[in-house]
Design a protein that fits this description.
Elements (H helix, E strand, L loop, with lengths): L2 E8 L2 E10 L29 H16 L4 E5 L6 E2 L4 E5 L7 E4 L7 E7 L3 E8 L10 E7 L2 E7 L9 E8 L2 E9 L8 E2 L1 E6 L32 H5 L4 H9 L22 H10 L9 H4 L4 E3 L10 E4 L10 E7 L2 E6 L4 E6 L6 E6 L5
Antiparallel strand pairs: 1-2, 3-14, 4-7, 5-6, 6-13, 7-12, 8-11, 8-14, 9-10, 9-12, 15-20, 16-17, 16-20, 17-18, 18-19
């Protein structure tokens, strides 16, 4: 049952009285999906602005997805018969690469391709993995074979590496075919083809793989040298890194949305936006208040979007720049965020552009 709630300075709305309708779940996809977020005036955060009909439609689609069996597939650059990269330099190694190895583009080479088995026509999430290395391209092109044709996007591979990064969600045809193409973009630098993951639905998450730097396995036949060891600022300072934060955030996916207060903030049972970020950070021993406005006063300011890193806290003022902070999420890479949303009625991943009124970001890194 839908309900109209009058909210007072708490949970994911702070400062002042704001009325809005808390409307069930929804789904947002890209690349030609049958459901599309970002309708004019609609925000996928806390103050949705969505109509009852819009929310009902996406709720029905999410309910359909929830009934489907889980499906995921990982294809690595070492997967026999499933990776083709004519003219690319293969055999590169790094302890932030999936399985320790990757392939890199060379001048004039065609795209690298990953062959995926799509079990049935449906909506799928595509994730990619790459190591962040000097010389990577900030404009790598990813092409995904959607039901309506290949959908291309530009991805910055100079950041966000060492874990699964969302590329997009797509309606895809059934079959066993080369579904992901990676090529160098127009700018300088090399494209990196490491691994991709296909996950059924918009809510699914990839396997909880770890880079060798984080304790993950090294693929058979791959040998890492001392030059492949990552010495990050987090390692040196003894602080939690963004990869750890995002892996923890993904564990909360599909947790039901409950405004706290008045509801209690309970991990994996009842979470609103600031409860979700509070719980993820608390897992690593640091306490944050259950308020997006108050959380803004923690951590270090991120100067602009180009400096966002995995695990950064993202803040929005959905009612306008002169209004209060109304929503908080956690940066998942490539312009995506994990957040607890009234629009979806659960913890979900969204593209940042589908939440209105981006305000800024803070970097909170608990000590190990």
């Amino acid at each position: 049952m839908r309900r109209l709630i009058l909210i007072v300075s708490a949970g994911c709305i702070a400062l002042g009285l704001v009325s809005f309708t808390t409307l069930g779940a929804g789904a947002q996809t890209s690349g030609g999906s049958s459901l599309s977020g970002g309708t004019t005036g609609v925000s996928q955060g806390t103050l949705t602005g969505a109509t009852q009909a819009e929310l009902d439609a996406v709720q029905q689609e999410l309910a359909r997805e929830d009934r489907l069996p889980d499906y995921s597939q990982v294809v690595d650059n070492t997967s026999a018969g499933r990776f083709a990269a004519s003219g690319w330099k293969t055999g590169g190694t790094d302890d932030l690469a999936h399985g320790g190895s990757f392939a890199a583009s060379t001048d004039g080479a065609k795209g690298a391709r990953f062959k995926l088995e799509v079990p049935a026509p449906d909506t799928y999430s595509v994730y990619a993995w790459w190591p962040v290395k000097k010389g990577n391209s900030a404009s790598t092109r990813f092409g995904v074979s959607a039901a309506s044709g290949t959908k291309w996007s530009t991805v910055d591979q100079t950041t966000d590496g060492g874990t699964w990064i969302p590329i997009g969600t797509y309606d895809m045809k059934a079959g066993d075919y080369y579904a992901v193409n990676i090529s160098a973009g127009a700018g300088p630098g090399r494209a990196v083809a490491d691994a991709v993951a296909l996950v059924r639905g918009t809510t699914g998450v990839p396997p909880n793989d770890l880079a060798p730097a984080d304790g993950g396995a090294v693929n058979a036949g791959v040998s890492l040298s001392s030059d492949d060891v990552t010495y990050s600022a987090s390692n040196i300072s003894g602080r939690v890194n963004g990869r750890q934060l995002i892996r923890q955030a993904r564990k909360h996916r599909d947790t039901p949305y409950y405004l706290s207060p008045p509801a209690p903030c309970i991990a994996y049972a009842k979470e609103d936006c600031s409860c979700f970020t509070k719980l993820v950070i608390r897992h690593f021993g640091k306490s944050l208040p259950d308020s997006p406005v108050k959380q803004w006063h923690y951590g270090h300011l991120v100067r602009d979007r180009s400096h966002l890193r995995l695990g950064d806290l993202l803040f929005w003022k959905e009612s306008g720049p002169s209004g209060p902070i109304t929503h908080v999420g956690m940066y998942a890479g490539n312009g995506w965020t994990w957040h607890a949303s009234t629009y979806y009625d659960r913890v979900y991943k969204s593209q940042m552009k589908y939440i209105n009124g981006y305000y800024g970001a803070k970097r909170v890194r608990p000590r190990l």
